[in-house]
Amino acid sequence: MPRPLVITVIGKSARDANDPVPPNALAAAEAVGRLLAQHGAVVVSGGLSGVMEAVSRGAQQAGGLVIGILPGFDKRDANRYVDVALTTGMGWMRNTLTVRAADAVIMISGGIGTLNELTVAYEDKPTVILEGTGGWSDRIREIAYDGKHLDEAHRATLHYAKTPKDAVDLALDLARHATGTDGRKEFQT
Q1: Cα separation of 71 and 66, whole Å?
Q2: Which domain holds residue 138?
Q3: Which of 180, 145, 131 has its CA nearest to residue 28?
Q4: Rama region for 135: left / alpha / beta (φ>0; ψ in -120 to 50; rest)
C-alpha cells in the first residue's frame, strides 16, 4: 500500500479579532490545501481557525485527507474541514507533534505560535515559507542569518516561495528527497 507524503501547514490563527489573518493569507492557504490534496498529500495542521481552517477547507474540497492535531481535549474544537481530529491536551506543546508528523512544512503568515512551530521544524523538517502572506512569513528572511538560517552554524536552510503552487511543488520535492521516496513507497511487511 503506498504511503502518501504528509505536509504540515503552519500559520496564523484567527483567535484574536484585534489581530486578524490577512485575507491574502487565507486565500493562499486554501490554494495550498487544494494543491496538496490534488497531489495526493495528507494535510496536517493545528486544526483550529485562520490559516489552519483555510488549508483544511482547500484540501477537503479537493478530496484530500485532513488531520488536525489539537491543543485541547475536545475534538469539537477542530474546524469543520478536519477529517481526523487528534486531541493532545498539550496546549502549545502540541506544536512539536504537528511539525514532527510532517515530511515537510509550509509556513503561511504566522504569529507567535507559528514562529514556535518554525523553530521546531528548522533542524529536521524541510520548511518552505510562503512570502507575501504577512506575519512572520514576511519578516523571517530579514532576521535570519544570510536570510535562510536560524542559527549561526547553518545547520538547516529555510526555503522560500512566492506563490501557493511554488510552495507546494517545493515542499513536495523536499519531502521526497528527505524521505528518500516519491511518496508512493510500499510498506515493508
Answers
A1: 16
A2: 6-176
A3: 131
A4: left
